[in-house]
Amino acid sequence: MNLILFSDACEHISRTCRVIGFPKGNALLMGVGGSGRQSCCKLANYVLGFKLFQIEITKDYKIEKNWKEDMKKCLMQAGAQRLPTTFLLVDTQIIHDKMLEDMNGVLNTGDIPNLYEAPDLEEQNKQAKKDCQEQGLDQTPLNMFKC
Questions:
Q1: What is the pTM of this model?
Q2: Which residues, at least 6 apart from 90, have a Cβ–Cβ distance to it below 8 Å?
Q3: Which of 17, 35, 63, 80 would bridge with 31, disulfide CB 3.0–4.6 Å?
Q4: Beta bridge partners of 52
Q5: 3-state secondary structure (DSSP) of residue 90
Q6: Going by DSSP bridges, is the β-strand pair 85-88/51-54 parallel, antiparallel, or unpaired?
């Protein structure tokens, strides 16, 4: 990115780094169009060494198919693969209210109801059991959720 950093931009980037760097940290960046919210977030993400996950809206993007698959990929990347991940969602990408409901679910509970089907859950349970064994924990549902 070709950026000219002025003192306010540096302050915004450092605040964004601080907020999203916390465990389970999240931020809502607000401002007028073209003020650099995305650039600020991407630069903070780079500084922290996080993986950036951003959806790409096309004219045939469907909530039932594409959104669910994108969310599965993002949550698996952040959870099962244990990669620090930033999910960047811009207001112009919100094409359905369901997207906001799902984001609310992730922020409140860390989950999206009815996202995974039985085969997906079996794969997740295998990974969680393996993680519990590596950490020397009992394979209880609570421990598997924490792993």
A1: 0.81
A2: 38, 54
A3: 35
A4: 86
A5: coil
A6: parallel
